[in-house]
Structure formats: structure tokens, C-alpha cells
Amino acid sequence: MRDPKLLERLRELNVPLEICISSNVCTGVTPTLEQHPVREIWEAGVPIVLNTDDPAFFRTSLEREYEIAERVFGLPVEELAANAFRYAFTR
Q1: Taking the alpha carbons of 23, 28, 34, 38 in that order, is the dihedral positive or negative?
Q2: Is-contact 51 62, C-beta < 8 A?
Q3: Which of 19, 23, 40, 64 has the fewest CB atoms within 10 Å, measured from its CB?
Q4: For residues 52 and 39, is the Cβ–Cβ distance under 8 A?
Q5: Which runs of consecutive H residues, i.e. helices, occur in the chain?
Q6: What is the pLDDT of residues 23-60, one digit of tens each?
Q7: Can you give the residue range of the structural domain that contains 75?
Q8: Total number of domains in the chain
């Protein structure tokens, strides 16, 4: 989010970002869950693929990451799930 030109370039080239919401909070990349920029990245048109990083270490699951994306950020889980398949088989 600190570099709008990078976000624009990612959107233009259709390059997805793999985002691990819980991991980002646990490691301090973002100070709180509510301050995570995932919604802003989505709204910038950058493709997003959710992941868990290390599920055991960060006490999460892929299902939980999708629940957080939907409940906290209002993101459409169907589109996020479609992205997971779309970008798994490209490039």
C-alpha cells in the first residue's frame, strides 16, 4: 500500500499477491488485524490469493483465513477461492 505505482503495475500485469493475514499480524507486518491492508489491495484491483504461511506455528487454517477475509474485511470468498485455482495453474 505504500507504493501505489507498484500496485498499479501488479494490477496491469495481473500478478497475484499471496496474502497470509494471520501470519502478517503475528509477525508484526501489520499492527492489528483490523489494520491489515488486504481490503485496500483488493479494492486497488490487485489479484489476491489467500494462504496460511505456517498453519501450525500461526495457529490458523486456510478455512480460517477465508473466514477472516469475509467477516473482517467483507471480501467475497467465492472470488478469492476462484483466484486460488486461476493463479495456481498460470505462469
Answers
A1: negative
A2: yes
A3: 40
A4: no
A5: 4-13, 21-26, 38-43, 55-58, 62-73, 77-88
A6: 999 999 999 999 999 999 999 999 999 999 888 888 89
A7: 4-88
A8: 1
Place of cell 504461511: 53
Cell numbers for 17, please give them: 499477491
Cell numbers that stand for 8 in this block: 498499479
- ∠ CA 7-57-87 to the nearest 5 degrees? 35
Residue 48: strand, helix, or coil: strand
3-class secondary structure, 56: helix
Indicate the pTM of the whole model: 0.89
Q: Is the Cβ–Cβ distance between 19 and 51 less than 8 Å? A: yes
Quick one: which of 26, 88, 58 has its CA closest to 47? 88
Q: How many CA atoms lie within 13 Å of 55's alpha carbon, on the beta-carbon side?
A: 9
